[in-house]
Amino acid sequence: MEATFNNKAALVTGAGSGIGRATALAFARAGASVAVADWDEAGASETVRLIDAIGGKAIGVKVDVSIPAQVEAMVDQALKAFGRLDAACNNAGIGGPLAFTADYPIDEWDKVIAINLRGVFLCMRAELPHLLKQGGAIVNVASILGNVGFANASAYTAAKHGVVGLTKTAALEYSAKGVRVNAICPAFIETPMLEKAGLLADPVAKQGLIGVHPIGRLGTSEEIADTIVWLASPAAAFVTGAAVLADGGYCAQ
Ligand code: NAI
Questions:
Q1: Which pLDDT belongs to residue 198?
Q2: What is the pLDDT of residues 115-153, one digit of tens each?
Q3: What letter does residue 115 receive in the DSSP assignment?
Q4: Residues 154, 82: Cα–Cα separation, whole Å
Q5: pLDDT in tens, 49-81
Q6: H or E stretch including 94?
Q7: pTM, two decimal places
Q8: Is 123 in contact with 90 (CB distance < 8 Å)?
Q9: What distance in angstroms lies between residue 120's CA and the mean position of ligand 1's atoms?
Q10: How confident is the model at residue 199 (pLDDT cuts 50, 70, 90)?
Q11: 130 — phi, psi (to 5°)?
């Protein structure tokens, strides 16, 4: 992917941690200038520092992806800094609490949908007019849970299925106009999200999680980042409207 994105600009949301940080770094390694967007300013600053350290170009942008005015301002800041937008990875997301559907707290449901689904819609809405200027690509970060169900995670699973639907719809609308739109669907990836959910510290829980992946391990942020940058690159020129599994075989079972 080296030099694929020379003189191009990419925007990554949720880039202050985990998959988003690895994706911002991968875009920078591929030559892109990167807008590193997150509501966690310290996390975004650290990603910018890591990109600076490898000789890349990046700006940090504070944003809550569920708030329309902040999303518009995020895209404006990226354009002001780099003059163009060629690739966008809509990755910001939260896990939400775990509870059976009848017990799921309504305010938590609304929060997960606001960030994980409405946030992706708002980002696409703000990004598309600028991607259309010279052509480009969107990669939305969905999940295996955009393809299959998962007990105790109704809001997350509904949001991720929604992201896959949004992706397919936008691909129908914009692919012939030069903007490809895809989703990536990772299985369980070792990131702070899983740490915060307490799934990595307990060796029994971690082993259980590993056990549902035919490949025999969890994924890494870098593996997902590389697939995202590939999907956004000309190497994936005929791929659009796809929900690409990067799941160690999870959904093959
Ligand atoms: P993470 O918790 O390490 O990173 C998520 C980032 O998003 C954080 O920096 C957080 O501050 C930011 N964020 C959250 N809400 C935000 C908001 N409203 N506005 C702006 N930034 C916000 O999580 P991870 O694991 O890197 O997740 C990234 C994406 O990948 C999420 O969409 C998640 O659902 C998805 N995913 C993760 C999997 C995993 O096993 N870790 C598996 C499949 C999908």
A1: 85
A2: 999 999 999 999 999 999 999 999 999 999 999 999 999
A3: I
A4: 39
A5: 999 999 999 999 999 999 999 999 999 999 999
A6: none
A7: 0.98
A8: yes
A9: 12
A10: confident
A11: -85, -35
- Distances in Å between the Cα of 170 and the Cα atoms of 48, 127, 234, 240 are 30, 12, 19, 10
Active site residue 156: yes
Per-residue b/e over 61-99, b at no fewer than 16 CB within 10 Å?
Answer: bbbbbbbeebbeebbebbbeebeebbbbbbbbbbebbeb
Tell me the residue length of the chain: 253
d(CA 233, CA 41) in angstroms, rounded, equals 28
> For residues 246 and 186, is the Cβ–Cβ distance under 8 A?
yes
Torsion angle of C-alpha atoms 16, 29, 75, 116, degrees rounded to 10: -50
Nearest to 162 by CA among 93, 252, 100, 209: 93
Atom 33 (ligand 1) nearest CA: 93
Residue 234 CA to ligand 1 centre (angstroms): 26
Q: Tell me the one-letter amino acid at 72.
A: E
